[in-house]
Design a protein that fits this description.
Radius of gyration: 21 Å
Structural class: alpha+beta
Shape: elongated
Helix content: 25-40%
Oligomer: single chain
Number of domains: 1
């Protein structure tokens, strides 16, 4: 009886270890995606306000270093997509949006994995303008 209880405990523990490893790998991917998204937001923020034209979702290239740094990227293939947009809120405000999406393109079960994503958004204001609170 004690061997049976010990076996159940070991199986539960090993299942939790596998699950926590998956969560840790997803956190590493999310951190990398956040860094790329933050870099794109910084690029958009550094653009002159008047030259920052409203654009719908437009794709941009994800650095190869980021894709190669993904956990397990040497063993699996990831689909990674970057989108950015600029929206005119008022004559003195624009909203910047960046979204990084990724998924594992090859799963052991042969199923298509769902997309995961990181979204960042910020408002920029025309320099020198006085704006009312939101």
């Amino acid at each position: 009886m004690s061997m049976y209880i010990l076996l159940i405990g070991v199986l539960v523990f090993s299942g939790m270890a596998v699950f926590s490893n998956k969560i840790a790998l997803q956190a590493k991917v999310r951190t990398s995606a956040y860094q790329v998204a933050r870099g794109q937001i910084d690029i958009l923020k550094s653009t002159d306000f008047d030259r920052l034209a409203p654009i719908p979702d437009t794709s941009f290239d994800i650095p190869t270093e980021m894709i190669n740094a993904l956990p397990g990227s040497t063993n699996t293939k990831y689909e990674v997509q970057g989108l950015r947009s600029v929206a005119q809120v008022t004559s003195t405000k624009k909203q910047l949006n960046v979204r990084i999406k990724w998924r594992n393109a090859s799963s052991p079960e042969g199923k298509v994995a769902p997309w995961s994503e990181v979204r960042l958004s910020t408002i920029v204001v025309r320099p020198g303008s006085v704006t009312s609170p939101l």
